[in-house]
Amino acid sequence: MKQHSFFLVLVCLILMSYSVHSQDNDWRLFPGPVAAGERSGMKEAEQSEGELNYIMEEELVDYIGMIDSMDQKESAPKGFRIQIYSASGANSRTSAYESQSEFLSLYPSMDSYTLWSYPNWVVRVGNFRTRLEALEYHMELREEYPASFIIGDRISVSEN
User: Fold this and answer.
1) Mind listing the pLDDT tens digit for each residue in 50-74?
2) What DSSP assignment string belongs to the chain?
3) Are 87 and 139 contained in the same domain?
4) Are residues 116 and 60 in the same domain?
5) What's the confidence (pLDDT) of residue 26?
6) pLDDT digits over 22-44, tens only?
7) Could you tell me if 63 and 104 lie in one domain?
8) How far apart are alpha carbons 85 and 120 in whole angstroms?
């Protein structure tokens, strides 16, 4: 019986090895040898005294632009906002925008943001650099929005 099961396992492994491919071995898919400067996506253009210029491929330019935009998002200053609404469900996005419109009708000069913060749609207001500054406005908002609270967030700072 042991020999029979060993033989069966051996046959299965042999059959599977014919049908399984880990990598495509087609040499035509791979480019030929690449010069050292081209590996990084850049080629030397021209060299003048004390200056070296590179021509970058379009994909590399797009990648660098994407990284720069991500860095700008991360470099937004940390501060505080007041969260006045949070809900999840089928109509939560619509009701979040309605809550934001209602808020803006009461406080037109204050910035407001409707965001998706998994798993909820939230409405946050203000751009406060300190918690004390946020607390001052929060006391004013508590009558209209009793469930509101102060939350740390990346803020937008106008340079006026």
Assistant:
1) 676 667 788 877 887 887 777 665 6
2) -HHHHHHHHHHHHHHHHHH--SS---GGGS-----GGGTTTEEEEEEETTEEEEEE-HHHHHHHHHHHHHHHHHTSPEEEEEEEEEE-STTHHHHHHHHHHHHHHH-TTS-EEEEEETTEEEEEEEEESSHHHHHHHHHHHTTT-TT-EEEEEE------
3) yes
4) no
5) 47
6) 555 544 444 445 555 454 555 55
7) no
8) 10
Question: Does residue 26 lie within any of the structural domains?
Answer: no
- Asked whether the predicted pLDDT for residue 101 surpasses 80, the reply is yes
CATH number of the domain within which 90 lies: 3.30.70
Radius of gyration of the chain (CA): 30
Return d(Cα 69, Cα 157) in angstroms, integer.
17
User: Is 95 found in the same domain as 50?
Assistant: no
